Amino acid sequence: MRISNIVAVTLLLTACENRPDNEVLAQAEKRAADRAVDDGKIECAINGESDFSRDCFTERLSGEGRVTMIIRHPDGGFRRFNVLTDGHGLEAADGFDKARVSIVEDGKIMVSVGPDKYLLPAQIRPAAGATADAQEEPVQSGN
User: Fold this and answer.
1) Do residues 14 and 2 make contact, with C-beta atoms less than 8 angstroms apart?
2) Per DSSP, which regions of 7-128 are E strands?
3) pTM of whole model > 0.85?
4) What is the SS3 assignment for 6?
5) Sheet holding 100-105: strands in order across?
6) Burial of 36 from C-beta contacts in 10 A (0-12 / 13-18 / 19+)
7) Can you tell me whether residue 92 is helix, strand or coil?
8) CB 50 within 8 A of CB 65
9) What is the Cα–Cα distance from 129 to 91, expressed in whole angstroms?
10) What residues pair up with 61 in beta bridges, in sequence order?
11) Mean pLDDT of 8-35
């Protein structure tokens, strides 16, 4: 056997040993996807558009016992919402139009105000009575 053949086989085997670790790649892809979701961008359809695009930015401001969310449009416009703590989502903080909130899928709501629509991530609580088969946690008595 020639030395060049041995070197070629060794190089091929070495190249096979340096394959990327699929688990490491999967974790890196998940981190990138999580960052993309948490980059402040949301899907929106502005001025009556029917197609949603991920072009709006959200900003949350806390103060005086409440949270305000500002959604900025790509054209420079914006809408302000009060984040409600009673499980009803959002309400328009100003303007004439009221916010309409509907659940579009698990973990996502659509907020419509006038001709503008926004898809937002949300923690959706089950409706009262929907968890009838769920095991109730015991109530602790005060000691």
Assistant:
1) no
2) 41-45, 53-63, 66-72, 78-83, 90-92, 100-105, 108-113, 116-121
3) no
4) helix
5) 90-92, 78-83, 66-72, 53-63, 41-45, 116-121, 108-113, 100-105
6) exposed
7) strand
8) no
9) 25
10) 68
11) 57
